[in-house]
Amino acid sequence: MSIMRTIDSIARDYRARRRRLATYLEISSLPLEIQKDIGWPDFTDGREELARPRRRVGGNGGGA
């Protein structure tokens, strides 16, 4: 993988994480009744997902 692809991949992951966080914060600011109506999970369900970066499966066929 070239250095530009690596940088692009990191940038895309960062932007996606920021969008997820922005969405989470926006919905979390809604009243609890509306959050329940749309089926939004409570804070403890989503906190771990936001904090942990996702690992890619596959790749260049290299080692572990």
Please, could you describe this protein's structure?
By secondary structure, the protein is mainly alpha-helical. The protein has one domain (3-51). Helices cover 64% and strands 0% of the residues. It has helices at residues 3-28, 32-37, 43-51. It is rod-shaped.
Defining traits:
64 residues, single chain, mainly alpha
Strand and helix map with partners:
Blueprint (H helix, E strand, L loop, with lengths): L2 H26 L3 H6 L5 H9 L13
Shape field: rod-shaped
Q: How far is the N terminus from the C terminus?
A: 16 Å
Order of helices and strands: HHH
Tally the structural domains.
1
Overall pLDDT confidence = 78
Biggest sheet descriptor: none
Which segments are poorly predicted (pLDDT under 50) over 5 or more consecutive residues?
none
Counted by DSSP, the helix tally is 3
Give a quick summary of the entry:
By secondary structure, this protein is mainly α. It is built from 3 helices and no strands.
